[in-house]
Amino acid sequence: MRKLSAFLFLYLTFSCSESETSIPNEDTTEIYLLPVVVHVLHNGEDIGIGTNISDDRIKKQIELLNNDFRRKSGSRGFNNHPDGGDAKIEFVLATKDPLGNPTNGILRKQLVIDDLPNDIPAFEFEQYAHFSYWDSKDYINIWVAPYPEDLTNIVLGKATGPDSDLPGDSLFQKPLPGGAEGIIVNWAHFGETNLAGGRNLGRTLTHEMGHYLGLLHTWGDRNCETNDFCDDTPAVDTEVTNDQPHLGCANEDVMVANYMNLTSDAVMNIFTNDQITRMRYVLENSPRRASLLTSKGVKSI
């Protein structure tokens, strides 16, 4: 979850240094294409106004997400760091709905919390799924949530983590058993905006997608020895919110540009090779992640 450190009580503890379980080396030449469905939960405005964000803004956000995951040259997502890599993971708005009908991958629903039945658990993912949700075996559900203005730059986003045999699995926020899962992004931080505060270039979704695919914050369990279980992210044992160069564990330079920090969008531009290996391992082995690779959301039934 991306939130300011002053509001750590709102945080989900997510996050990759040395692992007690080694991840097999693999050929990462295959590009994985993952279908997403964007559920715009709004306050009743016309499309393009306020919380009911426009199709163009959504499409731009998906473009930014792909730039970051593919380390696209000429984009903000490019880096020439020796430990940085191209994840060869791409995201596309779903082209088929669960019944096989054509779709643009964007759903809109006015959010009226008072309409929630009493039997819906008091868990944000379940509440939003009551209004709009597609099976997570075939789609990555992204809810654009109409958080009030006073939560702008405080609550940015959150995600459910995968089930896996990788170290750090217990640090993720998990869905309820058999329940809804996905990513929630504050509407104010979705896509490129003119918002002040440094979280306006679409990196909230990049960060949360990292969690959804098995990445922890770089500080992980706040332990210099294990932290995020990715060896090529310099070890830190506290949250990274400072954009300026500074030292972490063993006086090693902190990788402030890593997407799994809480630094400003403008400084973020790197997933490391170990982080990429971890995400691809999750995609190939985690139950409701591996099924995305054969999703009917982007293929004919």
From TrEMBL:
Belongs to the peptidase M43B family. Signal peptide: none annotated. It comes from the Bacteria. GO terms for molecular function: metal ion binding; metallopeptidase activity. The keyword Protease applies. This is Peptidase M43 pregnancy-associated plasma-A domain-containing protein. Residues 133-284 form the Peptidase M43 pregnancy-associated plasma-A domain. Coiled coil: none annotated. The keyword Glycoprotein does not apply. InterPro entries: MetalloPept_cat_dom_sf, Peptidase_M43. It comes from Flagellimonas allohymeniacidonis. Keywords: Disulfide bond, Hydrolase, Metal-binding, Metalloprotease, Protease, Signal, Zinc. GO terms for biological process: proteolysis.
